[in-house]
User: Fold this.
Amino acid sequence: GAVAWALLAALVLVTLAYDFITNQQGLANSAKIVANALTVLIVNDAPTSSPALLWLFLFTWFVGGLFALSQTPAARAEDDKPLARHLTTLAIYVGITLAAFLAFALPHASRIQPGADVALAIGPYYGAALALLFIVALALWRETPLPTLALRPATRWVQAAMVPLSLAICAVLIVNLNLGMVKADIYYKQAKFYDQAQNWDIAIRLYQEAIDYARDQDYYYLFLGRAYLEKATAIANAEQRAPWLERAQQTLEGARQLNPLNTDHSANLARLQRTIAEMTDDPAEREQALSRSLQYYEDATALSPNTPKLYNEWGLIHAMRGDLETALTKFQKSLALDQQYEETHLYLGNYYLNQQRYEDAEDAYLKALEIKPDLVQAHSALGYVYSKQGRLEEAVSENLQVLAISPADYASHKNLAILYQQLGRYAESLAEAKAALENAPQEERSALESFIAQMESQLKSSGAN
Assistant:
């Protein structure tokens, strides 16, 4: 009947309200949040009038009203007062839908105001949706009662008890198998925003919230472990850094225990140990971390034996330990798996460069660039190879290629300043040195300033402007 259709339309409107009423401008007034969500769109960080969502809501509301009117007896020629019946149906429809929409939308807007925990907004929506569905069922049952089962009086209490018991079981299943997962995903997506902004403290807290709602999902542990690691790398003091590294280790181990067949977990543990080895000044601790990293890479490649990236990283650990022969074996294994993976050629180039095998390094870097022409690391390394071979013009060309891809690259501006000086092109050297100074780390600014002063002196002595 009309009441059931009105309630179903209200359910649709409430769902639309949950999906589309957002607080893009960070307002603190619920009514304004609802109004702006329906009529304002943020374009290039500026509010722009856009009634598209308002029309969506009105069209949905209008179509629902047509269905409700079609269910009145007047619509089926069963009433001698069709106008009165239609007006009554319309009044019922308008009253129920508007009341339900406002009763949900305004409190929902208050739950998405600045400072509110938006993940908690999903719970009231579930409650509203289930309540409306239950009332729809009651309305339909009232209009068309179901056949009564012929039960003996002694067993009727069982039927009566099954209704609340079934509702309780459904509620527990919904909360544990669905609602919790949705909340976890909301917290995860919030955490990713702060993760990208490198706000590790807030990201860590939100990842922990996600895990609280989905403790059996290894995916969230992976990102929490990474956030712990990033937090640790930002701390200069070794004693203060150690607890965060330990938390990263425990979290990533927890992820691997939940899903031991996921290669990413073993690989991430290997990368964590490599990072620890790179940060420590203790030779014994460094060797221990590298040994652990090797074991984790062995586990990872056992799970994914055809992944070139893992062999490249595995080879890098052997190189860090000074086992260059084994490192080369791993790089060659990676190359055998995929000759079109540019990273492998880059690793081989670096290997040959460290061995001062400049021609082999050049070949490896050129192959990497054949596969990926905009690979900055290959252009930069190739420029260094050319400079070591005395091919200064070619070295300049490679560094210019880097700047074409990444105009603010500090190392390339610095390299060009030195190369131009060696070529006697002092004005260009000075310009590149000044460009490098704009992005130079604090510890290198003094040396660059001295270099700039030297270039200015050479320009004056040569009579150049």
In short: The first strand starts at residue 40 and ends at 43. Residues 156-196 form the longest helix (41 residues). The mean pLDDT is 89. Strands lie at 40-43, 46-49.
